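Intended use. Records like the one below are meant for learning the mapping from a protein sequence to its folded structure. Do not use them to infer anything beyond what is encoded.
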Amino acid sequence: MSSKRRRETVADGSDGSVYSGTTVGGERHGRGTLRLRDGSSLSGTWRRGALHGEGAYDDGEGREGSVRVEGRWRDGVLHGAAREYEGPRLAFAGEYAQGVREGRGELRLADGGALAGRWAAGELRGAAVYRYECDRGGLLRGEWRGGRMVRAVYAEAAPGAEEAALPARPPPRTPRYCHDPATAGRLSRWPLLPDPHEALRVEVREGAAHGERWLSARRALRAGEVASFVNGLRSAAAADGEKPGPVLGVPAELLPLSRYCATLGHHARHAGPGSDADANVALAEFEHPRFGSVLCLRATRAVRAGQELRMGYGDHLWRSALLDPHSEAAYYLALRTEPAVVLYEGESSAPEPSGQRRLLRVVQNGSWRVLWFNLVEQAIVYSPEAGAADEPGAAPSQVIGFEYVRTMAALALEAVPGAAASSAGAQARVVCVGLGALPANLASALRDRHTYVEAVEIDPLVVQLSARWLGLNFETVSGPLGEEAAASGGAADGRFAVCVADGADWMARAVVAVQRERSVARAAVICLDAYDGAGQVPAHLQSSRFLRSCAALLRPGGVLLANVWLAAGGFDAFVRALREGFATVEQREVPGDDKNVVLVAVL
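Structure written out for the chain above:
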């Protein structure tokens, strides 16, 4: 065989590869490129048929996420300094020995984090430094074993700071962190140990409504910055075919910060369907050294200190539901992904203005129970422990469900006197026309404010089903306060009163009662949320006569709140009727909902 060096293109019929470059004696020797049948290639300096010296491997995909490795090779395997790329992104820079990572190196993650230390037999072992963002911000310095964080402490460091620049021994009582992924039954072994990166950037704030929480920027955030993390119980199978992850969310009992604050992202609220332009953070995958594969909230634009962080629904409803398992998004996810189990179906004898049949159904979708009027949802409650064939206990008081109900609850609580003012004077009073989750949540939230909550519902079957299947905590009465002795203590025990009556008739009787007996309290708030089975507000509950009765029942400065579904029509006429009897009428948007608004009329 000739030992003459030559450049040639050689096809290997056995494996479909093609070599273009220098050969000696028929072997690849010198500069050349070997293109394999699967489209990948090896190029560089060859010796006796194998890469030896500077060389590169390219998987040939030619798109974002393709793999390219550049470095020193010895006898066909990586040996020495190397750089790995995924698409245009540098994924690893460090030392190799006999084809595996060995020695110093830095792993740069797709989420922007970086892990620098010493590799042995392809695994990170010993002292290492993790940066949440590879080019800036804080870091975790400690020990890794088998690629996992064994113990580490947090420190703020300037960009480019070396491991040696950090203190060798952290101060006493410095929090230590280790690999602590969630399981199917446990979020964290240390649920009250906050993530240090997150704690510097966000905080949870609480509103007047019982259980109302939201996520706020503790300091200004730049576009692209990771602000918070979303952890959750693990599942063997993830929704929508995604890889296993925190698809079960945070259990209701761990929502209080006193029970769990290791991550805070689940407290962020939604901008809502059709309102993604209002969102300032987006969900993204994140490989966390402590929690493992989780989600993060990344700022989509600059965020001011103190500004609320809101996320759009986007294309992945299930991810949005992770942020709040009791939210409207979580309900619609269950509606889409969980089988519907009909618990009750029957026709009501209550009058229906449209003349249609009034079919009532109670349906369970996953952890949600829904009362339907024909094709319109009357009320939804979250009952995670209720089996399909069992009657649930009382619905969790902090679970409101629909965003418009949350908005109405928050506005109602603002208008009711505080605990001190109420206990010093007469009993406060709140009236809800229409039975659903709103009066239940108001009664629970106002149980310490010496407040009596009344609901009026025209359909006796709705009252029965709400008690039996939705677990609402109320007692039935035959008339308004003053006409019949109310439940002792009002909402002190979280209960409320329900009267089966037409809303307009009940309102007229209530006005007569307060006019006849001065000791009977006038209402601080009246909430209107009554719809028929066609999704329309009965005309007599939008009339000037009915609204004058509402105004007569309210105390001076009292507030009327009305949920208006814009698709139902009649909005302008209703606003004009309100302005005839109220000093001011304002429109409040429902976060993330462009189909509902809440009208606020002040006497």
